[in-house]
Amino acid sequence: MQTQLGWIDPNLKLESEPLISKGYEAILQRRFDCVLCAHQLPDAGAQDLLRMLAEQGDPHPPVVVFGHDDDLELASALLSAGAQDYLARRDLSGSRLQRAIAFARAREVLRAELAVAPASVSNESTLGDREPLTELLNRRGLERTVARVLQGARVSRRSAAAVLVDFKNLRQLNQNFGLYVGDQLLLVIADVLRDLVGDQGEIAVIDGEYFVVVLPETTVDQASRVARRLQEELANVAIPLPAGTAQPQTTVKVARIPDKVETVHDLMDAVQLAEPDAFEEADIVAHQRVQGGLVAIDRLTSVLDSDDQLEVVQQVVMDLNQKEPFIYELFVRGRDELHDPGKLFAAARELDLETDLDLKCLELCLAQAPSFPPRSGLCFNVLPSTILGIDPHELAAACKRQAPNHLIIFDVSIRRITGNPSPLFRVLARLDKLGIPTSLDHVDISKSSMRAITLKKPRIVKTNPKMIIGIADDPVKRQDLQRLLAKVKSVGSELVALGLENDADMRAVVKLGVRFGQGFLLGRPDLVSRLGS
């Protein structure tokens, strides 16, 4: 067994105790990375150890239990009691042992990183509606959402729709590779859904393996386009294993939310009656329909080929104490139906031109650097795919060459980070060493945000505007911001409050200790060409 542990980590050392009571005493006295426990020892069983550890509270090491043979009922009971995994004795000398311990340790590290909320932050109205792992809506939260959506549909006389994602092989993955793998895939799928749905709907997870997306004022045809994009994104989801990768097997269904829906059970029945994958192909080969017009390939190509089709806009980030600019954020807008940056990039993404457009925007923003005071900070929105696709030395050299007298900051939206963020963060760390620091945008107190702050330690963290709008009258939002601010300070970053639109919210933010802010109250987005006036 010591040899097997050496394959995981040469520094791991094995200690053994013949009794549960002796092992429990050792756990209390010393720090262990993992506990491997027989199902039954002379004085007690593994369930007794799990109960004592639960009563003792955190922190305590993850526990992997082994028995004589595969016993699904026993494994289920042990996992429910808090074990990380269950192995048959024959697996103690093979790669299954290595995976179980490696995943148990990794899952415990992740749990410790994410467990940053003080108990005082608990709030029945927020946490009671959320599933703890993904922080998506739970059954109770979904019922409230459906009731609200149906009420809105009756008033507006517009239909609503739902998309169901069935994670079909979750239990098999948990059984074969341990709970850590299943949890990681659930988190990745949740992030894919958040990125795709954005503010257009609400997302819930039911029974640990069904994701439900509720889309207000949406037709089945519109929901089908969302489902098609979702199906394409999920096809690329995978997490690395010691040997190979683990991928989710998912089925996607779409249905109209009928008036008779009153409970989550009714909703699940309505969606599950739909045929799997029976939604129309989204017409994304030639064009993508966006609000305000039809964006064709030749239209977007002309945007990329001509500088006068795009406008560079700036919005200041203010030092709330000194009442002076802290940094300037620059982004690009199109003309006519492409005026909204979100629509502009959505069209480019559907036509597989997103990286081309992103590089064009970066080039145009860099060209505007002389319009700003020397040595000021200029923050540019850059996509993760662009950062991963271009050599960091080339990116840094281009920034230094075009803006030698300014601090260039790459602004990365956390909503665009999907899958394993480690490769992206490694490139961002290299850019940081080359003089291009990172700003993480649209951050909140979700587990993915907190983990990203821990792993990346960005120079600047920008909040999701939803955290700030109305904060003066919302004690829960103030608690959330206080928690995020503590996390940001712990890694040496600066927090910027986005969404400041009135004096009351700004006073509340300043009172909590936030020094920097951005929003309509401090300055609306304006063309760089009008900066002097």
Describe the structure.
The protein has 533 residues and is an alpha/beta fold. The chain has 21 helices and 20 strands. The strands form 5 sheets. It has an 8-stranded mixed barrel with strand order 12-13-14-15-16-17-18-19, surrounded by 5 helices. It has a 4-stranded antiparallel β-sheet with strand order 5-6-4-9, sandwiched between helices. β1 (35-38), α3 and β2 (63-67) form a beta-alpha-beta unit. α1 (2-8) crosses α5 (95-114), α5 (95-114) crosses α9 and α13 (341-350) packs antiparallel against α14 (354-367). It is globular. The chain starts with a helix and ends in a 6-residue tail after the last strand.
Show unreliable segments.
115-127, 275-298
Major beta sheet summary: 8 strands, mixed, barrel
Numbering strands along the chain, what is their spatial order in the largest sheet?
12-13-14-15-16-17-18-19
Strand fraction equals 15-25%
> What structural class results from the helix and strand content?
alpha/beta
Straight-line N-to-C gap? 73 Å
Radius of gyration: 26 Å
Query: How many beta strands in the DSSP annotation?
Result: 20
**Judging from the principal axes of the Cα atoms, what is the shape?**
globular
How many helices does DSSP assign?
A: 21
How confident overall, as mean pLDDT?
79
Helix content: 40-55%
